[in-house]
Amino acid sequence: MGPPPVEDRSEIVFFDVETSVPTRPGQGFAILEFGAILVCPRKLTELRSYSTLVRPADLSVISPLSERCNGITADAVAASPTFADISHLVYDLLHGRIWAGHNIIRFDCVRIRDAFAEIKQPPPEPKGTIDSLSLLTQKFGRRAGDMKMATLATYFGLGRQTHRSLDDVRMNLEVLKYCATVLFLESSLPDIFTANSWVSPNATTRSRSNGKYPSQRDLLNINKDSVLSSPATESKDKSHPILSFAMSSPKRDVPNIAVADPNIVQSDPFDFRGLQDEIKRKTIKSDVAMEEKPMQESPDLASSSSVSQPCGSSIVVLEPDGICIPSIDASLVPSFRGSQRIELLHEGFLFQLHCTDLKVRFGINTKFVDNAGRPRLSFVVDPSPSLCNVLDACDRVVQKLTLDSGSSSDWRPVVIRKEGFFNYPTVRLHIPTAVVADVAIYATEIYQRESSGAVQRLLFSKFDAAELGSLFMPGTFVDAFFSLDPYDYQQNAGIKLVAKKLIIHCK
User: Are the C-beta atoms of residues 109 and 289 closer than 8 Å to each other?
Assistant: First the structure.
């Protein structure tokens, strides 16, 4: 399609790239498909579209893992243009417009810049950026699960994500429309459509001050600040509906904790007028430069941030006895600014572990602190023999890949076996924290199982390591759902076990 006149740059361009997945150190990745649609910001209608497969310089980079991710084979792209052939079209589409997409700041924008750098051409620059992953996580909450595009599409009944560029950008636009409509309804009838009505009605809240559950009138709503970061936009763009959706409400006093209550008047989640005061006027380049590298994360840091992935592979939850040890593998996948990270796979799928009746050996550890002075929380449990076997196998495959990648870091085994206590192994579970509107909260879901078998979620009025420690006393039993996150940080490498959900057994 031909580019519009240079002066007409008011459209929003939703774009997506599909890439190869590196499978060996230093391989990098290549763009295999580019797709974009131009959208009228006032009517949210598609004006025109463009998509093409892209032939990489080396067809061998399209591995079986890449094919499983997006279905694009070497034969499919063999007769397609190279990125250099389409670079002028991509530049004309993107330059000077508002960029939009799902997880584009961490992934797609970086891939575009790298592709232009490879052909020694200046990259396009955006007028502004709307990353729907960050935006919807903040505005829509995690009521739709992990907030991947496939999960959001399933939540709204939009069908399966194909992981093809043009299909994905059109699905992205539809997801934004649905989310905006839900938020509009919630703001229009806050007493009926409460913004947090998706919170489990069984949720209970603990208060450190008196040890009792506070009454509903003591509970307030947390107003999350937008994490949208974009360059300055023209004043005429401030009234665009899609931009209005991306705006944050003005900053208010931050309360302790949130729980839904239809009797409490909800703040207007659709009042986003404060964006102009809150937008960070930076380019995409500065945004990308500030992103953390997952492989360089501290072993004691319990981060809740998600990591970009080139495809939305499903994550399966398995018990240790359900793991086939020979089926455990590790793979290098693209990360930020051309770097790579390692992820663990079982039979080709990302996985998390579910373990029951773990006995707490040592309670909450607060030895390490983050940059804000908050404790990085963790506790130690006694693993079962089957869990030890699985973790030892994961250690072996990740350590080998780490060494093959050129790392010289000291390896820290995930199963701790101290001299003289070799038959009494332990593992450490990390409880990540998240910061919402400058307030630290536990990113792990924490539940309590009563002797009757009833399970209730615990909500905490504030970040209090001492209060949390009272729940994880030595001898307490917990059920745990946790991820296995490889790290390589400051000459130390290993696998960090990050708790996603914990169920505490009452004595």
Answer: no
pLDDT digits (tens, 9 = 90+) for 65-80: 888 888 999 999 999 9
H helices of 283-426, in order, are 284-289, 385-404
Provide the token pair at 70. 């997006």
The predicted-structure confidence for 453-475, as pLDDT tens digits, reads as follows: 888 888 887 788 888 888 999 99
- Is 346 assigned a catalytic role? no
pTM: 0.46
Please name the amino acid found at residue 7. Answer: E
Q: Catalytic residue among 88, 95, 102, 163, which? A: 163
The total number of residues shown for the chain amounts to 507
DSSP structure class, residue 461: S
Which residue(s) pair with 54 in the sheet? Answer: none
Distance CA 98, CA 6 (A): 14
| Tokens 């999960």 found at | 151
d(CA 260, CA 355): 30
Reading the block at residue 276, the tokens are 């102009």
Distance, in Å, from the CA atom of 302 to the CA atom of 391, rounded to the nearest integer, reads 19
Distance CA 357, CA 381 (A): 10
In angstroms, the CA 1 to CA 166 distance is: 14
The pair of structure tokens assigned to 372 is 């804000």
Distances (CA, A) of 154 to 135, 151, 159: 19, 5, 6
Q: How confident is the model at residue 286 (pLDDT cuts 50, 70, 90)?
A: very low
